[in-house]
Every structure is written in structure tokens, then in C-alpha cells.
Amino acid sequence: MSDTTKKQRGNIDNLKPFKKGQSGNPKGRPKKGKCIPEILRKITAEKGDNGVTKLNLILNNVVNEAIKGDTWSIQFIADRMEGKPAQVIQQTIEELPSGFTTERI
Predict the structure, then answer these.
(1) Contact at 8 Å (CB) between 64 and 74?
(2) What is the DSSP string of 19-71?
């Protein structure tokens, strides 16, 4: 170890809190890049030529497709309005892992 490292170890000055008004992280948290949902929200919030947002235009198209009988559009609307139904998952185990008994389960 170098001499400076030996001097710093066990030094009580290292344990003192920051001075009043001094930040422990002066540059702050680094900015994160924009994520896809954030970008999509910004784009779909823009208004078109007729003053309607792009999101409204997209949803109008989905509703029109549902009226025509498109099953994907119908499912999309039902999931958004009523919520997705809970899915029941059934699992059958053919063999118990080694070391397990039916009493333990």
C-alpha cells in the first residue's frame, strides 16, 4: 500500500459529515436517456392539421376496425376498458425433484 492510503485509513477526518451547504454529489444524478414510452407520449400528444391529437386519430382507427369486425381491435378495446381477465395456470408435476417427498410439499 502507498503511504497516502495508510494515512487515510483509520483517519477520523474521513468520518466527518459534509460542511453546511456542501453537497456530497455536486454534479447531481446523471441524466438518463429518453425511453420509448416517453417519446411515444410526446409524439402522440402532438395535434394534427384538424386540431385532434395523433393518439385520438389512432384510437379512432382502432374503433373503426373493431366496428368492421377485426378481432384484434375488439380484444384491444376490451382489454383497455374492462381490464384483462385473470389467467388460470395449471401445472402438473410428473416427477418430484430429488430430495423432495410428498409430505414436504
Answers:
(1) no
(2) PTT--SSTT-SPPPPPPHHHHHHHHHHSB-TTS-BHHHHHHHHHHHHHHHT-H
The model carries a pTM of 0.51
Give the SS3 label for residue 81: helix
Question: How many other CB atoms are there within 10 angstroms of residue 70's CB atom?
Answer: 13
User: Which cell is 80 given?
Assistant: 383497455
Beta carbons of 35 and 46 less than 8 angstroms apart: no
- What is each CA distance from 36 to 31, 40, 41, 61, 95, in whole angstroms? 16, 6, 9, 22, 44
User: pLDDT of 81-97, one tens digit each?
Assistant: 988 888 888 888 777 77
* 3-class state of residue 99 by DSSP: coil
Task: State the first-to-last Cα distance of the chain, in angstroms, to the nearest integer.
Answer: 54
Closest CA to 64 of 51, 54, 78, 74: 74
Q: Where are the domains of the chain?
A: 48-83
